[in-house]
Amino acid sequence: MTHHQVIIVGGGTAGISVAARLIAARPGLDIAIIEPSQTHYYQPLWTLVGGGVFPKEETARPQADVIPNGVKWIRDAVVTFEPDKNAVTTREEQRYTYDFLVVAPGIQLNWSAIKGLEGNVGKNRICSNYSYETVDSTWHALKNFKGGNAVFTFPSTPIKCAGAPQKIMWLAEHYLEKNNLRKSSEVIYASATAGIFGVKRYGDALKKLVDARDVKTHFRRNLVEVRPDRKEAVFEDLDGGDPIVLNYDMLHVVPPQSAPDFVRSSPIANAEGWVDVHKHTTQHNKYPNIFSLGDASSLPTSKTGAAIRKEAPVTAENLLLVMDGKEPTAVYDGYASCPLVTGYGRLILAEFGYDGQIMETFPFDQTKERYSMYALKAYGLPQMYWHGMLQGRV
Questions:
Q1: 355: burial class by Cβ within 10 Å (0-12, 13-18, 19+)?
Q2: What are phi and psi of 267, to 5 degrees?
Q3: Which residues contact 265 (CB under 8 A, 6 or more apart)?
Q4: pLDDT digit string, tens, across residues 290-336
Q5: In the 8-state DSSP scheme, what is residue 378?
């Protein structure tokens, strides 16, 4: 078959969650997911993999195991969109047409955007939690760190899980303390952001930890080059000042990120390259039979699985409404969650919506570090993901 009622581009968190909800609400609906990967990853756990808590294999499942029953899996990759013709073409030179399209291909890691980085992650004391292939390098670098400068970066682009760059920093800081290396080490957070966290309530709490744990911060600084032979990291000043060069004995890099190239160059993208959708309905602003959610969408919220958990039911409900000739009425309020790991057994649970509105779940002060919230991230949320979210239940 080359025509389907619904084609979903991407078999990650967003694509699978929407597919599961659509097929549950309307059994027999003709849905196809176009996804090239053979493996599906639970990426939020990579922070703890990098900190040595879990093996990375625990985050992976065969893609075939998460495709919902009744949904066709096309093992291919979309390369172009033809929205005026309700069609997509693939890497295998196949052309598929649709009645409705859901675009959820995730985000693209642009390692080569940093001079000297490509080919050096996992070598020369450079590491990164940001891919399955490199996440082991972080724990290796941390275990072999004997003192000196441990530098953690945050790029100038939107990224998946904006809390992750500092989560691994906090784990590293705690590891050094527990292993009597803290006094001989500098923990440095060099970030393109204006502060430690964008939502004031949680930013204030994290500032106190920065001071209490003597973390050195450089804000509005963007990593542009690494010099592995000299163990130097070069940061531009986003406010126009002179670059700074930091020597490192461990360097955790978060690569610049963007929507995938095939999205950025397509007619469905906005000027910044993201799929151009309404912030509350997830419906495309030009093509009413197209929806998008997750990391590649223009939704002005955090690019996290927690955000997708709230985006997916809205997307599925509105798509079915439009399919029935009605207006989309389900509303996404921008909810996102960031379980901010602040050490082994420590976590601040940030929950917020559009415009920084606080949207907390629990009756206690969520700006305080708690083991219960750490246990939720480490043990509760992965189970909810595999057995609930991907099956359209939560």
A1: exposed
A2: -70, -10
A3: none
A4: 999 999 999 999 999 999 999 999 999 999 999 999 999 999 999 99
A5: I
Q: Which two tokens stand for residue 245?
A: 């060069």
User: Which of the following is catalytic: 22, 33, 67, 338?
Assistant: 338
AA identity, residue 167 = K
E strand or H helix at 176: helix 164-178
Residue 364's identity, in one-letter code, is: F
Whole-angstrom CA distances from 41 to 59, 194, 249 are 5, 31, 30
Asked about 127 being catalytic, the answer comes back as: no
In sequence order, what are the residues at sequence separation of 6 or more whose Cβ sits closer than 8 angstroms to the Cβ of residue 10? 33, 34, 35, 103, 104, 105, 106, 294, 296
Q: Give the pLDDT band of residue 1 (cuts 50, 70, 90).
A: confident
Residue 253 near residue 223 (C-beta atoms within 8 A): yes
What span, in angstroms and rounded, lies between the C-alpha atoms of 106 and 203? Answer: 27
Q: Given the residues 161, 176, 223, 349, select the one marked as catalytic.
A: 161
Closest CA to 196 of 174, 212, 182, 183: 212
Residue 82, Cβ density class (10 Å: 0-12 exposed, 13-18 middle, ≥19 buried): middle
| DSSP labels, 332-344 | ----EEEEEEEET
Q: Is the pLDDT of residue 209 over 90?
A: yes
Q: Which residues pair with 290 in a beta bridge?
A: 101
- Other beta carbons within 10 angstroms of residue 325's beta carbon come to 6
Q: Global pTM?
A: 0.96
Rounded distance between C-alpha atoms, residue 286 and residue 277, angstroms: 8
